[in-house]
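Postdoc handover notes: sequence design on the structure in folder B. Input C-alpha cells:
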C-alpha cells in the first residue's frame, strides 16, 4: 500500500452507528415488551415491582411506563398504595383495557368467527358467519370484514389496533397467505391483503394452533411454561410447539402439519390413500358421522354429541371418551419426540367433560408433562384469531400509534371495575 493510500477503515466507513441504532431499538422493544407483559400478568402493579420482576432499572421502568401511558396501553390506577415507612405512596399501573380492541377472525370449515378482544384477551363481542353460500375465499373474507365492521360500529368508541386472522391448514405467517386448506378448497389465498384492503387496519395471519399457543402463554393457564405443545383437534388436526416464548414456524410456516401421521389402531380411510391418519381418524367430521351411525345425533355439529352425553346418553359419552383416548395416543406420539413441559389440547370432549380429560391423560401415560385442556373452552376460535394480533402487540408495543388523550374529566376505572 502506498503512503498516500487511505486506510481501509476510511475507504469503507464502518456500519457500526447503524448497527448500534438497530441494537438500541431492539433493546427498547424488548424492554417495553417485558414491562407490558408484567403489567398484564401482575397489574395493578407498582413500578418498583416491575423493576424487580423484569430486572430493569427503576429509571428505565419509569421511562417505559411513560411511553406506554402515552400510547394509551396502560394507566395509573385511581388509588395509590402506601409504601411502608416514609416516602411517597406507590401509584400502581394497570392495562387500560377499556380503550382498545383487536379484531379476530377464525376461518373454520362450516363458518367464520369474527370477534373483538380487549388487551387481556377477553372476548368483547363475537359473531359467527355461516358458509351457507359456499367457502369461496373472496366471499368468506368480504363477509368477515363486514362482520368486523358491524362489531366495531357497536363497540361504543373502542379504538381498533389491528386484526388477527387464524385458520387451519398450511398458513404462511410472513406472506399472510393461506397456502393450502384442503377442507376449504383454498390455495394461495392472500388473506392479509384482502382483509387489510377492506378494513384499513394492519392485519396479521397465522395458523390456529400457533395462535392458541400465543394465547396460552399470554392469557392462559400455561403462562410461564418453558416449552409447550398445543394439539388442535377439530375438523382440522394440527399442532404447534414453542420454547422460551418462541413458537416454531419452520420454512414457510409449515411446522405442525400432522394430519397424515399414522395413529396405531386407526381404521378410518384417508383421502391420501392410507388408513388411520390422525386427521381422518380424529376429525369432527368423523366424530359426527360415527354419532349419526349410532343414532346419537342427526346433525354435523360436534357440540350436539357433547350435549347428548350431558343429557345422559351413554352411547354419546362412550363415543367422546373413545375419541379422547385416541387423542391421548396422538399426544403421546408428539410427546415422545418433543418432550414439552406442558401439553394443551383443544378438543370438544376434553374441554367439556372430566371423563374425557381422564381418558386423554391415561392414554398419554405417566409423564412429567402437565396435560391440560384449552384455557378458552367457550371462545377458543375467537381467541385464536385475536391472539394473532395481540401477540404482535405484546412483542412490540412501541409500534402502536399514539392514542388520543382522554378527557381529563373522564374517571379512571379501578382494576376491579374493569374486570
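Designed sequence:
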Amino acid at each position: 500500500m502506498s503512503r498516500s493510500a487511505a486506510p481501509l477503515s476510511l475507504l469503507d466507513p464502518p456500519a457500526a452507528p447503524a448497527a448500534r441504532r438497530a441494537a438500541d431499538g431492539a433493546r427498547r422493544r424488548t424492554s417495553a415488551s417485558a414491562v407490558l407483559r408484567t403489567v398484564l400478568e401482575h397489574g395493578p402493579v407498582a413500578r418498583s415491582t416491575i423493576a424487580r420482576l423484569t430486572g430493569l432499572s427503576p429509571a428505565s421502568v419509569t421511562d417505559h411506563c411513560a411511553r406506554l401511558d402515552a400510547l394509551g396501553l396502560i394507566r395509573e390506577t385511581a388509588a395509590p398504595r402506601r409504601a411502608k415507612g416514609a416516602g411517597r405512596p406507590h401509584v400502581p399501573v394497570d392495562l387500560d383495557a377499556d380503550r382498545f380492541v383487536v379484531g379476530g377472525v377464525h376461518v373454520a370449515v362450516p363458518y367464520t368467527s369474527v370477534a373483538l378482544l380487549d388487551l387481556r384477551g377477553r372476548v368483547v363481542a363475537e359473531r359467527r358467519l355461516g358458509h351457507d353460500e359456499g367457502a369461496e375465499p373472496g366471499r368468506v373474507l368480504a363477509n368477515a370484514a363486514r362482520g368486523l365492521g358491524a362489531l366495531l360500529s357497536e363497540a361504543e368508541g373502542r379504538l381498533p389496533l389491528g386484526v388477527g386472522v387464524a385458520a387451519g391448514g398450511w398458513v404462511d405467517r410472513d406472506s399472510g397467505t393461506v397456502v393450502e386448506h384442503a377442507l376449504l378448497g383454498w390455495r394461495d389465498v392472500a388473506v392479509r391483503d384482502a382483509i387489510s384492503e377492506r378494513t384499513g387496519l394492519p392485519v396479521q395471519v397465522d395458523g390456529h394452533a400457533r395462535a392458541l399457543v400465543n394465547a396460552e402463554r399470554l392469557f392462559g393457564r400455561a403462562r410461564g411454561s418453558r416449552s409447550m405443545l398445543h394439539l388442535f383437534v377439530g375438523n382440522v388436526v394440527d399442532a404447534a410447539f414453542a420454547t422460551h416464548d418462541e413458537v416454531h414456524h419452520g420454512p414457510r410456516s409449515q411446522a405442525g402439519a400432522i394430519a397424515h401421521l399414522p395413529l396405531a389402531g386407526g381404521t378410518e380411510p384417508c383421502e391420501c390413500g392410507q388408513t388411520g391418519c390422525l386427521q381422518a381418524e380424529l376429525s369432527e367430521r368423523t366424530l359426527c358421522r360415527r354419532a349419526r351411525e349410532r343414532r346419537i345425533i342427526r346433525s354435523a355439529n360436534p357440540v350436539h354429541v357433547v350435549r347428548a352425553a350431558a343429557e345422559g346418553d351413554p352411547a354419546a359419552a362412550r363415543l367422546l371418551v373413545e375419541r379422547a383416548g385416541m387423542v391421548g395416543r396422538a399426544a403421546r406420539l408428539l410427546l415422545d419426540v418433543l418432550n414439552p413441559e406442558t401439553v394443551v389440547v383443544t378438543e370438544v370432549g376434553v374441554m367439556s367433560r372430566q371423563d374425557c380429560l381422564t381418558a386423554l391423560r391415561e392414554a398419554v401415560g405417566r409423564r412429567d408433562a402437565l396435560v391440560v385442556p384449552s384455557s378458552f373452552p367457550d371462545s377458543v376460535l375467537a381467541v385464536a384469531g385475536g391472539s394473532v394480533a395481540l401477540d404482535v402487540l405484546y412483542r412490540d408495543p412501541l409500534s402502536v400509534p399514539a392514542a388520543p388523550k382522554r378527557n381529563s374529566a373522564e374517571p379512571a376505572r379501578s382494576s376491579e371495575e374493569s374486570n
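Context for whoever picks this up: Residues 1-11, 407-419 have pLDDT under 50 and may be disordered. Don't rerun without checking with the PI first.
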